[in-house]
Specification:
The complex is a heterodimer of chains A (259) and B (138). Chain A is mainly alpha-helical and 259 residues long. Chain A is built from seven helices and no strands. Chain A starts with 13 loop residues before the first helix and ends with a helix. In chain A, 25% of the residues are buried. Chain B is 11% helix and 25% strand. In chain B, the strands form three sheets. Chain B has a three-stranded mixed β-sheet, with no helix packed on it. Chain B has a two-stranded antiparallel sheet with strand order 1-2. A two-stranded antiparallel ribbon of chain B has the order 4-5. The radius of gyration of chain B is 30 Å and the shape is elongated. The chains are: A mainly alpha (259), B alpha+beta (138). Chains A and B meet through helix 5 of A and helix 2 of B.
Chain lengths: 259, 138
């Protein structure tokens, strides 16, 4: 008989499957780097996405349809998300570290200057400023969505979430446009490497955050949430704010200060 | 005049289904007016009550709290009662035995943990008595 508030999960195949799939993905990506053969990598990525989908589908069933997420389980989930976002912050700190390492004392190979000699960097007042405005606006609309959720206004929540999703997609499109019109590439000195690695990883996080928000939007339409229990939504909002803050640092350091 | 049209209602809270609507009531749907964003009569404008939506253990926890039990799983710290042999502090449990921790003195740096069995009142080293009482699981 169970009379405690914790959720002891049933045996699940997903942890071991995702481990092997990710291992496979790493190897196939290396193969792509070396042989330019991308089909195995794509297949591997498809398996990752499929496993993620099924794992998270199971969590949704455990919470919404089985009611295993009591108040203390919700607290532990929040701690889990906080730790995850902390690890993501440290992940980005490593890229900023690399950027400052190279930009604060440029070597003579770079022309003793930053940006390196003959690198034409972006004007921070063009697309990057637009992207800053877009992300800050999406921060407003996502807060609006959360506030509407807390007062149990479904209509406004859906509308403001849609606005946020739209702004997220718009950001990705503008970033894509900036990439294809860039006068330098990832192999143009350490400037190009740090620039595309950092902004590229940020862009990937924006795409993941947008997918998370889209997922929350459809769960909301499916009536999976109530105004006191909507952890998935709350966590997508935390994640979105994290992505937003990373962009502000990116904009201030790499685009503006490092111009 | 009730002319039925196949009209795509672009409300964010519908499932983007093609719906039958009357022309007379939905003239605004043909315009770019914000009217088209208004919800239909049969749509939810708020999410269900948290207790209605909840199920399983989550629901039982919410119902227990609503019924006035702030500690449905018997895990929170409780004030000791008189604690004599005749009036032991009652410790609720749904099982025949459980672990109890006694904070013997207010400034105690540690908690004295002990097993407590059904029908066997127990005395902590500090002299305080405990007794297991049955409380049905939620």
């Amino acid at each position: 008989m169970k009379n405690h508030q914790f959720h002891l999960v049933d045996p699940s195949p997903w942890p071991i499957i995702i481990s092997f799939v990710i291992l496979n993905y790493t190897i196939m990506t290396l193969m792509f780097f070396n042989t330019k053969l991308y089909t195995p990598m794509t297949i591997s990525l498809t398996f990752i996405i499929w496993t993620m989908f099924t794992w998270w589908r199971d969590i949704k069933r455990e919470s919404t349809y089985q009611g295993n997420h009591t108040s203390s389980v919700m607290v532990s989930m929040k701690y889990g998300m906080i730790l995850f976002i902390t690890s993501e912050v440290l992940f980005f700190i490593s890229f900023f570290w690399s950027f400052f390492h190279h930009s604060l004392a440029p070597t003579c190979e770079l022309g003793l200057m930053w940006p390196p000699k003959d690198i034409h960097s972006f004007n921070p007042l063009h697309i990057p400023l637009m992207n800053t405005i877009i992300l800050l606006s999406s921060g407003i609309s996502v807060t609006w969505a959360h506030a509407s959720m807390c007062v149990n206004n479904l209509n406004t929540t859906l509308k403001s979430l849609l606005i946020t999703i739209f702004l997220g997609i718009y950001f990705s499109i503008l970033q894509f446009y900036e990439y294809i019109s860039s006068p330098f590439s990832i192999s143009d000195s350490v400037y190009g490497s740090t620039f595309f690695l950092t902004t590229g990883f940020h862009g990937m996080h924006v795409i993941i955050g947008t997918l998370f928000l889209i997922h929350v939007f459809f769960r909301m339409k499916n009536i999976d949430f109530s105004f006191t229990h909507h952890l998935g939504m709350e966590m997508s909002i935390w994640y979105w704010h994290f992505v937003d803050v990373v962009w502000l640092f990116l904009y201030m350091t790499i685009y503006w200060w490092g111009k | 005049m009730a002319v039925f049209l196949r009209n795509l209602v672009l409300s964010p809270s519908t499932k983007y289904l093609v719906k039958n609507v009357t022309l007379a009531k939905n003239v605004a749907s043909f315009s770019t007016c914000a009217q088209r964003w208004n919800k239909a009569a049969d749509e939810l404008d708020e999410l269900p009550d948290p207790i209605d939506l909840a199920t399983g253990l989550e629901k039982r926890e919410l119902l227990a709290e609503l019924a006035g039990d702030p500690d449905p799983f018997n895990v929170k710290i409780r004030k000791r009662g008189a604690g004599t042999r005749d009036q032991p502090t009652e410790v609720p449990s749904a099982f025949e035995a459980r672990i109890v921790g006694c904070i013997c003195e207010e400034e105690s740096p540690s908690i004295s943990w002990m097993w407590l069995y059904e029908g066997k009142p127990k005395r902590c080293a500090c002299g305080h008595w405990f007794k297991l009482t049955y409380k049905a699981p939620i």
